[in-house]
């Protein structure tokens, strides 16, 4: 089972693309180190306070894939400098 999630986020208090990349890199690195998830910034690379992240996991069953993706969502939500606004998931 392949589960794809697209997560749009608003990043608070960034004044440059450099600050935005720092926040995004910290989140991506922690998620990759903690979970077996591929993650990357998909859109809005040129905007300071907005991003869209793509997360993908592969598992032998749906329950495990959903658990891992939900844990990644919780980790994103744990960062105070970012707010998850829209989340879409899709089975492939």
UniProtKB/TrEMBL annotation:
It comes from the Bacteria. Pfam families: DUF503. SUPFAM superfamilies: Hypothetical protein TT1725 (SSF103007). PANTHER family: DUF503 DOMAIN-CONTAINING PROTEIN, HYPOTHETICAL CYTOSOLIC PROTEIN. This is DUF503 family protein. The lineage of its organism: Bacteria, Bacillati, Bacillota, Bacilli, Bacillales.
């Amino acid at each position: 089972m392949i589960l794809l999630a697209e997560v749009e986020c608003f990043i608070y208090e960034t004044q440059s693309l450099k600050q935005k990349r720092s926040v995004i890199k910290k989140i991506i690195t922690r998620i990759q180190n903690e979970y077996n998830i591929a993650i990357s910034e998909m859109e809005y690379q040129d905007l300071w306070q907005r991003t869209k992240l793509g997360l993908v996991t592969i598992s032998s069953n749906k329950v495990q894939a959903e658990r891992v993706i939900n844990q990644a969502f919780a980790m994103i939500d744990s960062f105070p400098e970012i707010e998850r606004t829209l989340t879409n998931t899709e089975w492939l």
